[in-house]
Automatic annotation (TrEMBL):
It is found in: Cell membrane. It holds the Pfam family CRCB. One of its GO terms (molecular function) is fluoride channel activity. This is Fluoride-specific ion channel FluC. Keywords: Cell inner membrane, Cell membrane, Ion channel, Ion transport, Membrane, Metal-binding, Sodium, Transmembrane, Transmembrane helix, Transport. Na(+) is not transported, but it plays an essential structural role and its presence is essential for fluoride channel function. It catalyses: fluoride(in) = fluoride(out).
Length: 126
């Protein structure tokens, strides 16, 4: 039960920070490029790398704090960080086939799924 609470607290903090930063960046830098999401995704990747390295280095992060920061906070801040982290693990293990399948499949199928969702709602008239 404690793990669920820790993930929920970290996720809430990450989500609130993402919302606040996106709002501020989008109001400050008006442009067509999705700068806020781009910066948040890259920052989330940096953070998950830092947290992962700290946990692997030794006693710098307890398992509960790692759960709070990696799964909770980074998961709430951006799921892209988890996606990048999992791809890094596939590359590190030398599994190039699954890396390519996961990276390209997620991108292509993700965009197609969003398009399909919009299409279905427009067709149904909801």
């Amino acid at each position: 039960m404690m793990q669920i609470v820790v993930v929920a607290v970290g996720g809430a903090a990450g989500s609130v920070l993402r919302y606040t930063l996106q709002k501020w960046i989008n109001e400050t830098y008006l442009q067509s490029f999705p700068l806020a999401t781009f910066l948040i995704n890259v920052t989330g990747c940096l953070l998950i790398g830092i947290f992962y390295a700290m946990a692997e280095k030794g006693n710098l992060l307890t398992p509960l704090v790692r759960l709070l920061l990696v799964t909770g906070f980074c998961g709430g801040f951006t799921t892209f960080s988890t996606f990048a982290f999992e791809n890094m693990n596939l590359l590190r293990s030398g599994d190039l086939f699954y890396f390519a399948l996961y990276a390209l499949g997620s991108l292509v199928l993700g965009v197609l799924a969003v398009y399909l969702g919009v299409f279905l709602v427009q067709k149904i008239g909801a």
